């Protein structure tokens, strides 16, 4: 946008309602009814109140879980490697962040092979995400190849009967699940579509941000050295060691103190 037009945006803030736009866009993109419909009283407000769970102490718990899952993913990948191998940087970031984020939010299935399921889901998610900008600008999904069938397959992962057997769901997911279950007028498909939309919101920006941060550090060795020194100093001050046989625990307050990172 032309910076000289910002004043018009400010003056017309009431007409340029982002919540109205996002509700309509999300409903169309992820194929579920709008939260603001009269047949879903208080649903939109209830969903917004949930975001308090992602602040304060609940956020500490979520941060700890993400830290644990990141290390699990890295250790598993290292255990499978027998030699150096080359991989596309963005695909590497996507693989790590998607799996760790999914496990942090949606826990695990006690029966299914979690890694294979997540790998299949990630491949489908990547294809859907590539078409997401077209869906946002209202390009009919029928014109976007197999995007519609991919969306249907992704939504199926979150059907209520599958969500009910998952273990270690994040508190925010449990809360969303409970709220959705209170609305009998919502189909099981609609509830699953809501969960898929939340997953996209969780990793849709996180993965690119991780890639660009890693890209910058690789391109600037002096920045990488400074970040490593900062982390090493924190680990030493908390009596922790860095290595494949050690688990690292960093609190949210400690993460906030890492100004370079």
Descriptive notes:
The chain is mainly alpha-helical. It has a domain at 56-219. 65% of the residues lie in helices and 0% in strands. Helix 4 crosses helix 5, helix 5 (89-106) crosses helix 6 and helix 5 (89-106) packs across helix 11. The longest helix has 25 residues, at 56-80. It starts with 5 loop residues before the first helix and ends with a helix.
- Low-confidence runs: none
Overall pLDDT, averaged? 88
The termini sit apart by 30 Å
Please trace the helix and strand order, writing H or E for each element: HHHHHHHHHHHHH
Family: Belongs to the cytochrome P450 family.
Keywords: Heme, Iron, Lipid metabolism, Metal-binding, Steroid metabolism
Protein name: 25-hydroxycholesterol 7-alpha-hydroxylase
Pfam families: p450
Summary tags:
261 residues, mainly alpha, 13 helices
In short:
This protein is mainly α and 261 residues long.
List the helices and strands and how they pair.
Blueprint lengths: L5 H6 L6 H13 L12 H7 L6 H25 L8 H18 L7 H23 L10 H10 L3 H4 L7 H11 L6 H16 L2 H14 L1 H17 L14 H6 L4
Family: Belongs to the cytochrome P450 family.
Organism: Aquarana catesbeiana
GO molecular function, one term: heme binding
């Amino acid at each position: 946008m032309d910076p000289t037009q910002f004043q018009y945006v400010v003056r017309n803030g009431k007409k340029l309602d982002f919540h109205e736009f996002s509700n309509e866009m999300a409903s169309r993109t992820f194929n579920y009814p709008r939260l603001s419909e009269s047949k879903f009283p208080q649903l939109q407000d209830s969903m917004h109140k949930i975001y308090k769970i992602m602040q304060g102490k609940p956020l500490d718990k979520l941060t700890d879980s993400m830290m644990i899952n990141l290390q699990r993913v890295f250790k598993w990948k290292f255990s499978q490697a027998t030699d150096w191998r080359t991989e596309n940087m963005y695909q590497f970031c996507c693989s790590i962040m998607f799996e760790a984020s999914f496990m942090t939010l949606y826990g695990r299935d006690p029966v299914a092979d979690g890694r294979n399921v997540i790998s299949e889901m990630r491949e489908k998610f990547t294809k859907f995400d590539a078409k997401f900008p077209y869906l946002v600008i209202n390009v009919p999904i029928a014109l976007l190849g197999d995007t519609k069938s991919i969306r249907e397959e992704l939504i199926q992962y979150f059907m209520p009967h599958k969500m009910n057997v998952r273990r270690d769901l994040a508190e925010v997911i449990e809360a969303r699940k409970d709220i959705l279950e209170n609305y009998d007028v919502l189909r099981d498909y609609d509830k699953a579509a809501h969960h898929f939309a939340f997953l996209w919101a969780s990793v849709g920006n996180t993965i690119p941000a991780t890639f660009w941060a890693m890209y910058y550090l690789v391109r600037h060795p002096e920045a990488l050295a400074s970040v490593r020194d900062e982390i090493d100093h924190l680990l030493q001050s908390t009596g922790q060691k860095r290595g494949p046989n050690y688990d690292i625990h960093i609190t949210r307050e400690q993460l906030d103190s890492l100004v370079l990172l």
